[in-house]
Every structure is written in structure tokens, then in C-alpha cells.
Please model this.
Amino acid sequence: MALIVQKYGGSSVADAASVQRVAARIVATKQAGHDVCVVVSAMGDTTDELLDLAQQVTADPPSREMDILLTAGERISMSLLAMAIDGLGVEARSFTGQQAGVITDAAYGQARIIDVSPSRITATLADGQVAIVAGFQGVNTEANDVTTLGRGGSDTTAVALAAALGADVCEIYSDVDGVFTADPRIVPSARRLGQIGYDVMLEMAASGAKVLMPRCVEYARRFGVPVHVRSSFSDLDGTLVTKEDPMEEPIIAGVAHDRSQAKITLVDVPDVPGKAARIFKVVADAGVNVDMIVQNVSASGTGRTDVSFTLPAADGDAATAALAAVRAEIGYARLAYDDTIGKLSLVGAGMKSNPGVSARLFHALSDAGINIEMISTSEIRLSVVTGAGDLDAAVRAVHTAFDLDSDQDEAVVYGGTGR
Ligand code: ADP
Ligand code: ASP
Ligand code: MG
Model:
């Protein structure tokens, strides 16, 4: 008998029939003799719909109210799931994040879990019942307010609960059969990875592979929680995310993409010490996280240079306004903003010891006629920015160039709208 945490994403509980289908899977696990704690996301695209609704009411909704609104999505799915399990003759109790003891800091919309005290969950499991927990939410005990953990946050709820409960495994059920060498929505010939190490998975997730939220992978690595990514629509093997096994680690694990970034270029910045420090202080003070940065050598004799960087498009207004306010002080000529960009990242543990990876990637993009706007690297990642319209073709070209295409059946996407 094991203690299993199972997380079901929104696409797995999109409607009443899906809730019943998931309930049957949970009951089967329970009847196999295991203790089961379930974390569930809001049904289908509920969270996006609530966000849209708030925008229709006011352009700038207060973040405290936004979090109260968004936590409603998971309350609906958790109670319906408990009812459906009850309907199958197995006792189940649902709990909000607060009731489950998920304590966070006060950062509305992107709160971090600082503690988990799941005494009610432990008691529920001890009573032989299934515990259902609303994902994506917690409570800040200082303000006594509910908080949300950022998009995709139910993954993190599940891993945090698995760590706190000492679960044997955390199973993340989604609408694909595991972690693939690329998003199966873009690359139907993507290959499923049987196993992937925490570090490489974290890099994939942070580069846009939204099958797992980056913070959930960080959490799993810190507490050594084995994460099993699977489909709730099939019984296939899935992907085990666990401590790296150097013998199993491929040179290239996969290609991730990200459409959520934008690019700012400051044109004609005086090329003197201190300008970059000032620019990025202003951006940081606006609460914006910068990703890639490129500064050209100044054209001979002009003493001026261009500075470009990428940032989440959602922070575009904040960063542009902050930089516009210091234009005279910094002395740049013009600010160009572009949110029609895409970022492609090639990720793999063996990259650092294999020369020629970048040349092969650039060659693949040039063969496909795709222009590269920016480049950045880490030990196990190589990222390039392209035009948004070129991104899908770029992902496919690079996937093929690194021999990642599978000759098996196509990767299946069972549900979800991809939103
Ligand atoms: P859930 O609603 O279950 O949380 P998500 O939509 O958050 O599901 O994540 C699953 C989706 O992640 C898949 O439908 C797929 O389009 C996308 N995805 C992106 N990159 C990958 C990858 N490398 N492997 C598998 N899925 C990926
Ligand atoms: N419902 C939340 C979201 O859509 C959390 C999650 O699905 O993990 O981001
Ligand atoms: Mg998700």
C-alpha cells in the first residue's frame, strides 16, 4: 500500500462527464489499496474565463480581489469531484488550499508556498477517505487572505503536499502521455521521454514547456519527490521526473518554446559606464523580470549603442512606462517595443560537453529561412528569439535537425484547448 498524490489538470476535468471519468480513476486507485490525496485544477478554461470577466468589469482589478475570484474555479471542481467519488460509493472530502494548510507569502497572483501543515488531510486519509484539495491556492496567514500561486500552480500544490505528506509519488495527470521532446501540439512526431532529471526538466519548464510549472519542479528537486507525468485519458507509462541518472541522460532532451515574451530595444544609448546598471535598476524597480539581454558594441565613433532585452509581455506596459519616465536621464533616443516574438530553447544535459550544438541549431534555422533576433545560453540550454510567426516552423526544424523525431505513433493530445 502506498500514499499517492494525484493531480488532475483543467483539461482532465473540463465537464461533468470528465469529472466522473476522473472520479472512477481515483476510486480504482483507492480500491487497489492505496491512500489517495487528489489535487484538482479549475474545470477547462475556467481560470482564463474568470480573468476575462474581471477585465470586463474594470481595466485594473485589485490583486487581492483577483485572487479571491480565481480561487473560486478550483472550489467548483474540488466539490464536484468529491460528489462524483461519493456517487461511486467511496467517501471523499474536499478542502480549499487554506483548509489543507497551504501557507504562502503575500504576493497575490504569484504567491510562494512557505509551509504546508496538512493535518486535516492526514486525518481524512487515516479515516479511509479520499482527500481532494483545491490546487493553485493557499492562505497568507499574516493578512489572513487567500492567495494564488501563479498560472499552472496546481502542479506546485500537488508536489508541496506530496512532500509534506511523505507521499511515495506525485502523479500529474494531464492531456498528453508525459513529457515529450517538444510540445505535441506543434510537433506531432515528438517522442515521449521515459525519464528525465530534475535539472533538465526545470530548464524545459522554465523555457515554456507548460506540462509542468517550473516552481513545482524546483520543489520536487528540493524535497526529492518523484513526479510521474501521465495522461488521465490513457493508461500509458508516462514520464518519471527524478534525480538525474548520468547513464540515462541524453545529450539533447528536447525543444521548448515560449510565446509569452516581448522585446524592448533602447536605441542610441550613450555608451558610457553605468547606463546598463541604471536601465535594469529602473526595470527591476517596476517589478519586471528580464530574461535575455543583448548590447551591441557601439558603432565606431558614435559613442552610442542599442540595448535590447526580453521580458514577459504581461509586464510590457509597466516596463515601457518606467523607462519612458527616465528617457532624458538615460539619454536614449527611442524605445521600440515588440511583442510579436517567440523564444525557442534547446535543452540537454550533455550540451556542455558536446561541441557543435549551436552550429547545428543555427544551421537548421538558416536552412528553414528563419532569422535569429537574439541568442542566449546556459550550461544546459541554448535559446534563440525569432519572429512569432516563425516559431512553430523553427521548433519543427530544430527538432528534426537533432534527430528527435519518433518513428512510432504520433504524440496524442487528448483534450484541452491549448489556451
Ligand atoms: P493541465 O491542464 O493538465 O495542467 P497544461 O495545459 O498545463 O495541462 O499542460 C499540458 C500541455 O503542455 C499539453 O497539452 C502540451 O500542449 C503542453 N506541452 C508543452 N510542452 C510540452 C512537452 N515538452 N511535453 C508535453 N506537453 C507539453
Ligand atoms: N487553474 C489554474 C490555471 O489555470 C491553475 C492550474 O491549472 O494549475 O493556471
Ligand atoms: Mg498545467
